[in-house]
Every structure is written in C-alpha cells, then in structure tokens.
Amino acid sequence: TNNPFLGNIVNKQETIEKMEKLGITVKKVESIDIPDGVLDKNEGTNYTRWNNTFDKLRIFGLTEFDKIVCLDSDMYIKANIDELFEEEHMAATIDRHYCTIDPNYMEMTSGVMVIVPEEGLDLKIADKMLAVKNKLNQFGDQDLIQEYYSNWKNEEKLHLPLVYNMFILHIYLHMPIQIFLYLGNSVKVYYFCISY
Q1: In this model, does residue 182 exceed pLDDT 60?
Q2: What are the strands, taking DSSP E only, across 4-102?
C-alpha cells in the first residue's frame, strides 16, 4: 500500500517500541473515560478484556486523516485492500455472531471499518456506554458503535463482502470445503480472534 500504516495506542511503552521497530508509526491517544458501572459489569461477567477496547473509539476523532481503514490487531491481511479507501463512511462487514453464520443477524463488526473522522465523534459514540450497559450483560467498542449507527443493518451499501473479514473458525466449523476453495483465493483479510 502507498497509504500510511498507523498504530493507535494508549501508553503501552513495550508495544509502542515493538511497533516502531517494525516501522509502524504510532499515534498515542488519551484513554476513553469509562464509567465505574461499565467496568464493574464487564468484570462481573468475566469479560474484562472488553474494557480494553473502548480506546479504539478514538479513531473516529482523528481528523488529521480524511479517511481511515481501521483493522483490529488480530487480522491477517493476505492481499492489498487499498480499494476500501473508496468505500463510504462506516462500510464494514457483518458480524458473525457467536461464530455462526446467521442470515437474520445483520449487525456490523468493528474488526474492519472504513471511517471518515469527525471532531468529537469518538466522544459521541462513547456517550452510548450507559445506554448499552442497561441492555447487555457485557460489551465493548463494537456494541457502542452498533448502538450509535443503529440503522447500519438496513444500509446494504455499507455491507462489505466477507472476503474482508473471514473468521478463521468459520472455515472449520461452518463452511463446506467447496465454498472455501471457491473463496480461498479471493479472501483478503482473515480474522483470528485473539481471545474468545
């Protein structure tokens, strides 16, 4: 790619040093304020890892960029994906809810997103924390983004093909080998799910 590659991180010096050794520019951001009730809810359900995902929302406020293709750190990029920069704000793939392929579940995943940053948008999305806390037993950044963009599921033009976020478990659990062989060469991004 000819586009800059940027790591968005909150004050983890060891990680910053590793990324910089790989030639990745690091953007240090301030941590998102998380209400105690949210922290407690995630900790009480053994989902403390979600508390670490809220800082990803800072990407929505990086107005020094015209457009960002946001990728989670547990993605394996197999081919150039520069064409995603031509997609509209909030283009993303459909979440494969609980490792299943459910045609009735049409929420977006935050693993691969196209974002047009806007001043203060990160905080507007973060403001959804208390509303989401009252709906879900545990949650992370993706749930807040889904709440903020609640009509996303109805905007088909924003739904990216599965080749941009192929969940590796689907290959083994749900996908007939014929479909995988058909898609195999066209898959551009694999999602490994660091912790499930």
Answers
A1: no
A2: 6-9, 25-28, 68-71, 75-77, 92-94
Sort residue 67 into left (φ over 0), alpha (ψ -120 to 50) or beta: beta
If pLDDT is split at 50, 70 and 90, which confidence band does 175 have? low
For 106, the token pair is 């049409």
Q: What is the pLDDT of residues 18-72, one digit of tens each?
A: 888 888 888 888 888 888 788 887 777 777 777 778 889 999 999 999 999 999 8
- 108 vs 20: CA distance, rounded Å: 31
Asked if 191 and 167 count as a contact pair (C-beta separation under 8 A), the reply is yes
Which residues are CB-neighbours of 164 under 8 A, at least 6 positions away? 81, 84, 93, 112, 188, 189
Residue 44's H or E segment, with its range, is: helix 36-44
From residue 8, give the alpha-carbon distance in Å to each of 15, 31, 53, 56, 153: 11, 11, 11, 7, 27
